[in-house]
Amino acid sequence: MSVPAEARVVVHEDAQTLAGDVASMLLDRLESAQDRGEVPQVGLTGGSIAEAIHREVARRAVDSSVDWSRVVFWWGDERFVEAGSPDRNARQAREAFLDGLGVDPAHVHEVPAADGVATAEDAAAAYSETLRTHGADFFEVLMLGVGPDGHIASLFPGHPALDVTDAIAVAVHDSPKPPPDRVSLTFEAMDRARAVWFLVSGDGKADAVAAALAGGDVHEIPARGVVGQDETLWLLDEAAASAL
Length: 244
Ligand code: 6PG
Fold this sequence. Notes:
The protein is an alpha/beta fold. It is 29% helix and 19% strand. It is built from six helices and nine strands, in the order E-H-E-H-E-E-H-H-E-E-E-H-E-H-E. The protein has helices at 15-35, 48-60, 89-96, 120-134, 187-190, 206-214; strands at 7-12, 41-44, 72-75, 77-79, 139-145, 169-172, 182-185, 193-200, 231-237. Strands 1-9-8-5-2-3 form a six-stranded parallel beta sheet, with helices on one face. Strands 4-7-6 form a three-stranded antiparallel beta sheet. Helix 6 links the parallel strand 8 (193-200) and strand 9. It starts with 6 loop residues before the first strand and ends in a 7-residue tail after the last strand. The relative contact order is 0.19. Bound molecules: 6-phosphogluconic acid. 6-phosphogluconic acid binds at residues 45-50, 77, 79, 89, 145-147, 151-154, 177.
């Protein structure tokens, strides 16, 4: 494993500018990977700034050369609810951009839903097997929203999932952010990313951003737990950067 890249901070005027810039960066990165003959693997995240980015990708895709049939999509976490629930990160992403891009359905790997398997543990085991079987050795880019408590994906402060080292994905219960039952990639799986992009908007996250960049215990600030092999970016709007 290469030496993790130092985190870089890029501040954008506001959430809309942040969403547009990240969308352009993603399109550029996918084009470059495909120009190298690769089939890039993208780790998506849930949340509001992610949704804004997804919509900007859909809007800007028409001007890009990305071959959407040659991009593979995963999720860093998912809520363990029915597939049709508006709470599903995958449903939000499909509606915001995936369904309109002509992606190969076989390249969109959703975490199993609560109407497909019995427990979040079953969903985590199945998702781990799918990633083991169909994943590449790395994510081209793993996008992560950050919560006001410094959580990423569904790895929350003080939760046992933070210390799991022998699994790709784990079940999370009692999530402080509803819904309570989820599935999350582990730090070990997240570290297999060339680029890690933290996507953060709003002054409610400013303290978490400052704490994560200042160092500290990953059990208190889970965002401390992930770095990209080549690139680690904190992509912020001015409000989220206001405590730096
Ligand atoms: C989830 C997300 C979660 C999210 C952060 C930030 O499933 O809830 O993956 O990790 O990215 O909570 O969400 P906002 O951008 O909406 O604040």
